[in-house]
Amino acid sequence: MSSTQTKTAVLMILCAALLLCGASPAGAVRIKDIATFEGVRPNQIIGYGLVVGLNGTGDKTGAAFTTQSLNNMLKRMGVTLPSGQLRVKNVAAVMVTADLPPFVKPGTRIDVLVSSLGDASSLQGGTLLATPLKAVDSQIYAMSQGPVSIGGFSVSGAAGGAQKNHPTVGRIVQGATVEREVPIRWQGKEDMTIKLHQPDFTTAARMAKLISDRMPASAARPVDASTVHFNVPGNYRENLAVMVAELENLSVEPDGVAKVIIDERTGTVVVGENVRLSTVAVAHGNLSIQIREGAAVSQPGPLAPQGAQTVVTPQTDIQVQEGADQLMVIESAATINDVVKALNAIGATPRDLIMIFQAIKAAGALHAELEIM
Q1: Which residues form the domain of 121?
Q2: Residue 7, CB-side half-sphere exposure with 13 Å CA sphere
Q3: Cα distances (Å, whole numbers) of residue 30 to 87, 145, 247, 274, 338
Q4: Which among 220, 244, 273, 321 is least buried, having the fewest CB atoms inside 10 angstroms?
Q5: 36-91: per-residue pLDDT in tens?
Q6: Domain assignment present for 125
Q7: What CATH number is attached to the domain comprising 190?
Q8: Are 246 and 331 part of one and the same domain?
């Protein structure tokens, strides 16, 4: 595939994605997809444990905390060993983390993430021993134990090796059993608050009006760009689950600030639907310079005088090509569809778009936030 064909293919993919974004409005989404009810959130729990059964890929002898933990565990089981005789190459110290969902009940099983704490090279084939998981209040909320799955492998030889995924971090599906419920004051509440994931005054106002229309007695009102406060009607105070189920499925059209997101490391450009431009002319040059180095070899002929030598002469071939791109004019209040068509007409690649949008912003013609990642 030629460079021209490659450029065309990349532009077609980018334009198709941008046109899909611009062809249809943002549309309405459910409240549950853009906001949460105050108090209904997960809690983080963490624990320290040991993974055993490793095939020589555990912590080295320099990991003193692993040796101490193993020694303490063996003492609780009635096994006492002289200091310095423990070898921990089949054992690894790990941190176990998990998210405790809201309203989870004792006996429920949740997933846990196991991460190496020492210098183990792999957790493949290991088994996590019983590990208590605590929250910030130092109370035990779950117990974790089970075989660790890393979803990959790590092998090595004398001259090299191969690795898939990250072998020192694994997961235990349903590897923890909840022992304690997080207390949440739920029934009997007289008022509630909804928190937007992306703060926006317009979205908050629309959501408050939607709730007021659905439940006139709620007197819903936006407190700020991320908070909507409302009263709980009397007939719902002892049955909040039904009220929340009704409200979270209401559809609201979210709003947001017009943005152009640029990732210079990957050449990614994402243009929001509400981006507008003033009248501006754009021309982006396409300069290509190729330099080829070579050598010409001249050898003495059969009748050359005695002492003649082979001569190597360096040669340099320089080719310069400059594209004949035309100056394109983008009219005032152009939509994203218009912008894509105009930039496509001058043959702009994703890398070119980065420079073009920066230049348009500097000229004051881009009416959107330009965020460079």
Answers
A1: 43-178
A2: 14
A3: 56, 38, 9, 21, 30
A4: 321
A5: 998 888 999 999 999 999 988 888 866 788 888 888 888 888 888 776 667 778 89
A6: yes
A7: 3.30.1360
A8: no
